[in-house]
Amino acid sequence: MLVANKDYRTIWVNDTHLPDVQIIDQRHLPHRFVVETLSTYKQMATAIKEMHLRGAGLIGVAGAFGVYLAYRDAMYRNNSVEFIQSAISEILNTRPTAVNLKWAIEIVTSRVENIEAIDEKVTKALEVAKELANLDAESCRMIGVNGLPIIEEISRKKNGETVNILTHCNAGWLAFTDYGSALSPIYHAHRKGIKVHVWVDETRPRNQGAALTTWELLNEGVPHTLIVDNVGGHLMQNGMVDLVITGADRIASNGDTANKIGTYLKALAAHDNGIPFYVAAPTSTFDFALETGLGKIPIEMRTGDEVKYINGLLNDKVVDVLICPTQTQVANYGFDVTPSRLIKAFITEKGIIAPNTDEITKLNC
Ligand code: MRU
Protein backbone atom coordinates (compact mmCIF):
# COMPACT_ATOMS: atom_id res chain seq x y z
CA MET A 1 0.00 0.00 0.00
CA LEU A 2 1.11 3.59 -0.52
CA VAL A 3 2.79 5.44 2.32
CA ALA A 4 3.89 8.95 1.39
CA ASN A 5 3.59 7.97 -2.30
CA LYS A 6 5.88 4.96 -1.91
CA ASP A 7 4.53 1.45 -2.31
CA TYR A 8 5.21 -0.63 0.79
CA ARG A 9 4.59 -4.11 1.95
CA THR A 10 4.92 -4.91 5.65
CA ILE A 11 7.87 -7.25 5.09
CA TRP A 12 10.45 -7.53 2.32
CA VAL A 13 14.08 -8.39 1.65
CA ASN A 14 16.73 -6.13 0.20
CA ASP A 15 17.99 -6.93 -3.26
CA THR A 16 21.16 -8.88 -2.49
CA HIS A 17 22.18 -12.53 -2.46
CA LEU A 18 21.00 -14.03 0.87
CA PRO A 19 19.56 -10.71 2.02
CA ASP A 20 18.48 -9.38 5.40
CA VAL A 21 14.76 -9.05 6.10
CA GLN A 22 13.10 -5.67 6.58
CA ILE A 23 9.83 -4.85 8.29
CA ILE A 24 7.76 -1.84 9.23
CA ASP A 25 8.26 -1.62 13.00
CA GLN A 26 4.62 -1.15 13.97
CA ARG A 27 5.39 -0.19 17.57
CA HIS A 28 6.12 3.34 16.37
CA LEU A 29 2.91 3.90 14.42
CA PRO A 30 1.00 6.15 14.06
CA HIS A 31 3.59 8.67 15.24
CA ARG A 32 6.67 7.56 13.29
CA PHE A 33 7.28 5.34 10.26
CA VAL A 34 10.26 3.16 11.15
CA VAL A 35 11.83 0.37 9.11
CA GLU A 36 13.71 -2.32 11.03
CA THR A 37 16.33 -4.64 9.53
CA LEU A 38 16.46 -8.20 10.85
CA SER A 39 19.64 -10.17 10.28
CA THR A 40 19.27 -13.20 12.54
CA TYR A 41 16.50 -15.61 13.45
CA LYS A 42 16.75 -14.34 17.07
CA GLN A 43 15.96 -10.83 15.92
CA MET A 44 12.97 -12.15 13.99
CA ALA A 45 11.74 -14.16 17.00
CA THR A 46 11.96 -11.02 19.14
CA ALA A 47 10.18 -8.95 16.48
CA ILE A 48 7.27 -11.40 16.46
CA LYS A 49 7.09 -11.90 20.24
CA GLU A 50 7.45 -8.22 21.14
CA MET A 51 5.05 -7.25 18.36
CA HIS A 52 7.30 -5.09 16.19
CA LEU A 53 5.09 -6.81 13.63
CA ARG A 54 1.78 -8.49 14.35
CA GLY A 55 -1.44 -9.75 12.76
CA ALA A 56 -2.06 -13.39 11.86
CA GLY A 57 -1.03 -13.30 8.20
CA LEU A 58 2.09 -11.25 8.79
CA ILE A 59 3.12 -13.38 11.77
CA GLY A 60 2.99 -16.40 9.43
CA VAL A 61 5.05 -14.80 6.67
CA ALA A 62 7.52 -13.45 9.25
CA GLY A 63 7.85 -16.98 10.65
CA ALA A 64 8.73 -18.20 7.14
CA PHE A 65 11.43 -15.54 6.78
CA GLY A 66 12.55 -16.44 10.33
CA VAL A 67 13.18 -20.02 9.17
CA TYR A 68 15.22 -18.65 6.27
CA LEU A 69 17.30 -16.60 8.73
CA ALA A 70 17.71 -19.69 10.96
CA TYR A 71 19.21 -21.65 8.06
CA ARG A 72 21.36 -18.67 7.15
CA ASP A 73 22.59 -18.46 10.77
CA ALA A 74 23.29 -22.22 10.63
CA MET A 75 25.76 -21.71 7.79
CA TYR A 76 28.14 -20.29 10.37
CA ARG A 77 27.46 -23.15 12.81
CA ASN A 78 28.46 -26.15 10.69
CA ASN A 79 24.89 -26.67 9.58
CA SER A 80 24.08 -27.89 13.10
CA VAL A 81 20.77 -29.80 13.08
CA GLU A 82 20.26 -29.09 16.80
CA PHE A 83 20.72 -25.37 16.19
CA ILE A 84 18.19 -25.32 13.34
CA GLN A 85 15.62 -27.36 15.27
CA SER A 86 15.88 -25.22 18.36
CA ALA A 87 15.74 -21.99 16.29
CA ILE A 88 12.60 -23.14 14.48
CA SER A 89 10.89 -24.20 17.68
CA GLU A 90 11.79 -20.83 19.24
CA ILE A 91 10.11 -19.02 16.33
CA LEU A 92 7.10 -21.34 16.54
CA ASN A 93 6.62 -20.59 20.22
CA THR A 94 6.73 -16.81 19.95
CA ARG A 95 2.95 -16.38 19.73
CA PRO A 96 0.47 -19.19 20.28
CA THR A 97 -2.91 -18.13 18.89
CA ALA A 98 -2.51 -17.31 15.18
CA VAL A 99 -2.25 -20.66 13.37
CA ASN A 100 -0.64 -18.99 10.34
CA LEU A 101 2.72 -19.20 12.11
CA LYS A 102 2.66 -23.01 12.30
CA TRP A 103 1.22 -23.21 8.78
CA ALA A 104 4.00 -21.14 7.23
CA ILE A 105 6.84 -22.73 9.18
CA GLU A 106 5.68 -26.22 8.21
CA ILE A 107 5.57 -25.26 4.54
CA VAL A 108 9.10 -23.88 4.53
CA THR A 109 10.62 -26.75 6.52
CA SER A 110 8.89 -29.42 4.41
CA ARG A 111 10.20 -27.86 1.19
CA VAL A 112 13.74 -27.66 2.56
CA GLU A 113 14.16 -30.89 4.52
CA ASN A 114 15.28 -33.13 1.64
CA ILE A 115 17.99 -30.75 0.48
CA GLU A 116 21.51 -31.71 1.61
CA ALA A 117 23.75 -28.67 1.12
CA ILE A 118 23.20 -25.86 3.59
CA ASP A 119 23.64 -23.08 1.03
CA GLU A 120 20.93 -24.68 -1.11
CA LYS A 121 18.68 -25.00 1.94
CA VAL A 122 19.11 -21.28 2.63
CA THR A 123 18.31 -20.35 -0.97
CA LYS A 124 15.23 -22.59 -1.00
CA ALA A 125 13.95 -21.29 2.36
CA LEU A 126 14.24 -17.74 1.07
CA GLU A 127 12.44 -18.64 -2.16
CA VAL A 128 9.55 -20.29 -0.26
CA ALA A 129 9.26 -17.39 2.23
CA LYS A 130 8.97 -14.97 -0.71
CA GLU A 131 6.33 -17.21 -2.29
CA LEU A 132 4.32 -17.23 0.94
CA ALA A 133 4.57 -13.43 1.17
CA ASN A 134 3.16 -13.13 -2.36
CA LEU A 135 0.48 -15.71 -1.64
CA ASP A 136 -0.59 -13.81 1.48
CA ALA A 137 -0.88 -10.54 -0.45
CA GLU A 138 -2.80 -12.16 -3.30
CA SER A 139 -5.17 -13.95 -0.89
CA CYS A 140 -5.93 -10.65 0.81
CA ARG A 141 -6.54 -8.96 -2.55
CA MET A 142 -9.03 -11.71 -3.38
CA ILE A 143 -10.71 -11.34 0.02
CA GLY A 144 -11.37 -7.75 -1.04
CA VAL A 145 -12.75 -8.84 -4.41
CA ASN A 146 -15.00 -11.46 -2.79
CA GLY A 147 -16.16 -9.21 0.05
CA LEU A 148 -16.98 -6.22 -2.14
CA PRO A 149 -20.44 -7.51 -3.23
CA ILE A 150 -21.52 -7.68 0.43
CA ILE A 151 -20.89 -3.96 0.84
CA GLU A 152 -22.33 -3.18 -2.61
CA GLU A 153 -25.54 -5.00 -1.72
CA ILE A 154 -26.02 -3.01 1.49
CA SER A 155 -25.22 0.21 -0.34
CA ARG A 156 -27.91 -0.64 -2.94
CA LYS A 157 -30.44 -1.35 -0.22
CA LYS A 158 -29.63 2.03 1.34
CA ASN A 159 -29.98 3.78 -2.04
CA GLY A 160 -26.32 4.73 -2.08
CA GLU A 161 -26.27 6.17 1.42
CA THR A 162 -23.13 5.57 3.48
CA VAL A 163 -22.55 1.99 4.61
CA ASN A 164 -21.40 1.95 8.24
CA ILE A 165 -19.00 -0.86 9.05
CA LEU A 166 -17.64 -1.67 12.49
CA THR A 167 -14.26 -3.36 12.83
CA HIS A 168 -12.17 -4.51 15.77
CA CYS A 169 -8.38 -4.46 16.19
CA ASN A 170 -6.32 -4.17 13.01
CA ALA A 171 -6.97 -6.60 10.21
CA GLY A 172 -5.70 -4.26 7.52
CA TRP A 173 -2.60 -4.45 5.35
CA LEU A 174 -0.38 -4.01 8.41
CA ALA A 175 -1.64 -7.37 9.70
CA PHE A 176 -0.66 -9.13 6.44
CA THR A 177 1.85 -8.65 3.66
CA ASP A 178 -0.54 -6.30 1.87
CA TYR A 179 -4.25 -5.32 1.46
CA GLY A 180 -5.49 -6.85 4.75
CA SER A 181 -8.43 -9.14 5.48
CA ALA A 182 -11.30 -7.23 7.16
CA LEU A 183 -10.23 -3.94 5.58
CA SER A 184 -9.66 -5.30 2.08
CA PRO A 185 -13.37 -5.32 1.05
CA ILE A 186 -13.65 -1.82 2.53
CA TYR A 187 -10.69 -0.56 0.46
CA HIS A 188 -12.17 -2.15 -2.64
CA ALA A 189 -15.56 -0.54 -1.99
CA HIS A 190 -14.05 2.87 -1.28
CA ARG A 191 -11.96 2.76 -4.46
CA LYS A 192 -15.07 1.87 -6.40
CA GLY A 193 -16.78 5.02 -5.13
CA ILE A 194 -19.17 3.32 -2.71
CA LYS A 195 -19.76 5.51 0.32
CA VAL A 196 -18.38 3.77 3.39
CA HIS A 197 -17.65 4.84 6.93
CA VAL A 198 -15.75 2.71 9.44
CA TRP A 199 -16.30 2.61 13.21
CA VAL A 200 -12.86 1.74 14.58
CA ASP A 201 -12.72 0.02 17.99
CA GLU A 202 -9.65 1.34 19.80
CA THR A 203 -8.88 -2.26 20.94
CA ARG A 204 -7.35 -2.06 24.37
CA PRO A 205 -4.84 -2.86 25.65
CA ARG A 206 -2.45 -2.41 22.70
CA ASN A 207 -4.78 -0.14 20.79
CA GLN A 208 -4.23 -1.65 17.36
CA GLY A 209 -7.46 0.03 16.25
CA ALA A 210 -6.51 3.47 17.52
CA ALA A 211 -2.90 3.32 16.38
CA LEU A 212 -2.94 1.20 13.22
CA THR A 213 -6.41 0.93 11.70
CA THR A 214 -6.97 4.69 11.89
CA TRP A 215 -3.53 5.27 10.35
CA GLU A 216 -4.29 2.91 7.49
CA LEU A 217 -7.74 4.37 6.82
CA LEU A 218 -6.40 7.91 6.97
CA ASN A 219 -3.72 6.99 4.44
CA GLU A 220 -6.35 5.57 2.10
CA GLY A 221 -8.79 8.45 2.63
CA VAL A 222 -11.54 6.19 4.00
CA PRO A 223 -13.93 8.08 6.33
CA HIS A 224 -13.77 6.63 9.84
CA THR A 225 -14.45 7.36 13.49
CA LEU A 226 -12.47 6.04 16.45
CA ILE A 227 -14.55 4.70 19.34
CA VAL A 228 -13.69 3.13 22.67
CA ASP A 229 -14.26 -0.58 22.90
CA ASN A 230 -17.58 -0.41 24.73
CA VAL A 231 -19.44 1.79 22.24
CA GLY A 232 -20.30 -0.78 19.55
CA GLY A 233 -23.42 -2.16 21.27
CA HIS A 234 -24.89 1.31 21.67
CA LEU A 235 -24.26 2.14 18.01
CA MET A 236 -25.84 -1.12 16.90
CA GLN A 237 -28.97 -0.53 19.01
CA ASN A 238 -29.35 2.86 17.37
CA GLY A 239 -29.13 1.71 13.75
CA MET A 240 -25.67 3.16 13.23
CA VAL A 241 -23.92 -0.05 12.12
CA ASP A 242 -24.86 -1.90 8.91
CA LEU A 243 -22.35 -4.70 9.22
CA VAL A 244 -19.37 -5.87 11.23
CA ILE A 245 -16.23 -7.26 9.62
CA THR A 246 -13.35 -8.55 11.72
CA GLY A 247 -10.25 -10.58 11.02
CA ALA A 248 -9.31 -13.88 12.63
CA ASP A 249 -6.27 -15.50 14.15
CA ARG A 250 -7.47 -19.11 14.08
CA ILE A 251 -10.67 -20.66 12.80
CA ALA A 252 -11.63 -24.21 13.82
CA SER A 253 -13.30 -26.60 11.34
CA ASN A 254 -16.75 -25.85 12.76
CA GLY A 255 -16.25 -22.09 12.34
CA ASP A 256 -15.46 -21.12 15.94
CA THR A 257 -13.12 -18.16 15.53
CA ALA A 258 -10.36 -16.75 17.72
CA ASN A 259 -9.76 -13.05 17.20
CA LYS A 260 -8.53 -10.11 19.27
CA ILE A 261 -10.03 -9.94 22.75
CA GLY A 262 -13.45 -8.25 22.69
CA THR A 263 -14.52 -9.64 19.33
CA TYR A 264 -16.97 -12.07 20.97
CA LEU A 265 -18.84 -9.20 22.67
CA LYS A 266 -19.22 -7.43 19.32
CA ALA A 267 -20.55 -10.61 17.76
CA LEU A 268 -23.09 -10.98 20.57
CA ALA A 269 -24.25 -7.40 20.18
CA ALA A 270 -24.48 -7.79 16.39
CA HIS A 271 -26.51 -10.98 16.79
CA ASP A 272 -28.89 -9.32 19.26
CA ASN A 273 -29.45 -6.46 16.82
CA GLY A 274 -29.77 -8.51 13.63
CA ILE A 275 -26.57 -7.06 12.15
CA PRO A 276 -24.50 -9.35 9.89
CA PHE A 277 -21.17 -10.28 11.47
CA TYR A 278 -18.54 -11.37 8.91
CA VAL A 279 -15.08 -12.76 9.52
CA ALA A 280 -12.52 -12.15 6.76
CA ALA A 281 -9.52 -14.49 6.63
CA PRO A 282 -7.33 -16.40 4.20
CA THR A 283 -7.32 -20.21 4.18
CA SER A 284 -4.01 -20.14 6.08
CA THR A 285 -5.96 -19.00 9.18
CA PHE A 286 -8.18 -22.12 9.22
CA ASP A 287 -7.02 -24.87 11.57
CA PHE A 288 -8.52 -27.92 9.86
CA ALA A 289 -7.07 -30.21 12.52
CA LEU A 290 -9.22 -28.59 15.19
CA GLU A 291 -12.87 -29.70 15.23
CA THR A 292 -14.12 -26.93 17.50
CA GLY A 293 -12.56 -23.77 18.87
CA LEU A 294 -14.11 -23.07 22.27
CA GLY A 295 -11.66 -24.13 24.97
CA LYS A 296 -9.36 -25.63 22.31
CA ILE A 297 -7.67 -22.68 20.63
CA PRO A 298 -4.70 -21.56 22.75
CA ILE A 299 -5.34 -18.06 24.05
CA GLU A 300 -2.24 -15.92 24.44
CA MET A 301 -1.71 -14.32 27.84
CA ARG A 302 0.43 -11.20 27.62
CA THR A 303 2.21 -9.10 30.19
CA GLY A 304 0.05 -7.12 32.62
CA ASP A 305 2.03 -3.99 31.85
CA GLU A 306 0.14 -3.67 28.55
CA VAL A 307 -3.01 -3.12 30.63
CA LYS A 308 -1.50 -1.06 33.45
CA TYR A 309 0.20 1.44 31.15
CA ILE A 310 -1.13 3.36 28.19
CA ASN A 311 1.34 4.24 25.49
CA GLY A 312 1.01 7.57 23.68
CA LEU A 313 2.53 10.80 22.50
CA LEU A 314 3.03 13.61 25.03
CA ASN A 315 4.76 16.83 24.04
CA ASP A 316 6.28 15.07 21.01
CA LYS A 317 7.67 12.26 23.13
CA VAL A 318 6.31 8.70 23.24
CA VAL A 319 5.57 7.84 26.87
CA ASP A 320 3.95 5.05 28.91
CA VAL A 321 1.44 6.31 31.45
CA LEU A 322 0.42 4.24 34.50
CA ILE A 323 -3.38 4.13 34.81
CA CYS A 324 -3.90 2.06 37.99
CA PRO A 325 -2.15 1.42 41.31
CA THR A 326 1.26 -0.19 40.59
CA GLN A 327 0.45 -3.24 42.72
CA THR A 328 -2.87 -4.01 40.96
CA GLN A 329 -3.17 -7.56 39.68
CA VAL A 330 -3.89 -7.78 35.97
CA ALA A 331 -5.14 -10.50 33.58
CA ASN A 332 -4.25 -9.76 29.97
CA TYR A 333 -6.06 -12.19 27.67
CA GLY A 334 -5.02 -11.50 24.08
CA PHE A 335 -7.86 -13.23 22.24
CA ASP A 336 -11.34 -14.67 22.64
CA VAL A 337 -13.37 -17.19 20.68
CA THR A 338 -16.56 -16.26 18.85
CA PRO A 339 -18.80 -19.32 18.39
CA SER A 340 -19.66 -20.05 14.76
CA ARG A 341 -23.40 -19.58 15.41
CA LEU A 342 -22.78 -15.82 15.74
CA ILE A 343 -20.96 -15.57 12.40
CA LYS A 344 -22.88 -14.88 9.20
CA ALA A 345 -20.07 -16.11 6.89
CA PHE A 346 -16.34 -16.13 6.23
CA ILE A 347 -14.93 -13.94 3.50
CA THR A 348 -11.97 -15.88 2.08
CA GLU A 349 -9.81 -15.73 -1.03
CA LYS A 350 -11.77 -18.72 -2.31
CA GLY A 351 -15.19 -17.11 -1.84
CA ILE A 352 -17.86 -16.63 0.83
CA ILE A 353 -17.96 -19.66 3.11
CA ALA A 354 -20.83 -20.66 5.42
CA PRO A 355 -19.74 -21.20 9.05
CA ASN A 356 -20.17 -24.96 9.21
CA THR A 357 -17.87 -27.97 9.10
CA ASP A 358 -19.01 -29.20 5.66
CA GLU A 359 -18.28 -25.91 3.91
CA ILE A 360 -15.11 -25.21 5.83
CA THR A 361 -13.69 -28.67 5.16
CA LYS A 362 -14.07 -28.10 1.39
CA LEU A 363 -11.60 -25.20 1.74
CA ASN A 364 -8.89 -27.71 2.59
CA CYS A 365 -8.67 -29.07 -0.96
O1 MRU B 1 -2.18 -9.34 18.73
P1 MRU B 1 -2.25 -9.02 17.26
O2 MRU B 1 -2.19 -7.57 16.94
O3 MRU B 1 -1.26 -9.84 16.46
O4 MRU B 1 -3.67 -9.55 16.92
C1 MRU B 1 -4.03 -9.91 15.67
C2 MRU B 1 -5.03 -8.99 15.19
O5 MRU B 1 -4.66 -7.94 14.73
C3 MRU B 1 -6.41 -9.30 15.23
O6 MRU B 1 -6.87 -10.27 16.04
C4 MRU B 1 -6.91 -9.35 13.81
O7 MRU B 1 -8.23 -9.05 13.80
C5 MRU B 1 -6.64 -10.63 13.13
S1 MRU B 1 -5.09 -10.68 12.44
C6 MRU B 1 -5.42 -10.48 10.82
From TrEMBL:
Which superkingdom, per the lineage?
A: Bacteria
Record-listed E.C. numbers: 5.3.1.23
Return the InterPro entries for the record.
IF-2B-related, IF-M1Pi, IF_2B-like_C, Initiation_fac_2B_a/b/d, M1Pi_N, NagB/RpiA_transferase-like
Family annotation (SUPFAM superfamilies): NagB/RpiA/CoA transferase-like (SSF100950)
What are the recorded Gene Ontology BP terms? L-methionine salvage from methylthioadenosine
Keywords in alphabetical order, please. Answer: Amino-acid biosynthesis, Isomerase, Membrane, Methionine biosynthesis, Transmembrane, Transmembrane helix
Residues that span the membrane, as ranges: 51-71
Q: What is the reaction catalyzed?
A: 5-(methylsulfanyl)-alpha-D-ribose 1-phosphate = 5-(methylsulfanyl)-D-ribulose 1-phosphate
Pathway per the UniProt entry: Amino-acid biosynthesis; L-methionine biosynthesis via salvage pathway; L-methionine from S-methyl-5-thio-alpha-D-ribose 1-phosphate: step 1/6
**Where in the sequence is the active site?**
D249 (proton donor)
EC class, as a word, reads: isomerase
According to UniProt, residues marked as the site described as Transition state stabilizer are C169
The residues the record assigns to binding substrate are R54, G55, A56, R95, Q208, N259, K260
This chain's function reads: Catalyzes the interconversion of methylthioribose-1-phosphate (MTR-1-P) into methylthioribulose-1-phosphate (MTRu-1-P).
Q: Which family does it belong to?
A: Belongs to the EIF-2B alpha/beta/delta subunits family. MtnA subfamily.
UniProt name for this protein: Methylthioribose-1-phosphate isomerase
The organism's lineage is: Bacteria, Pseudomonadati, Bacteroidota, Bacteroidia, Bacteroidales
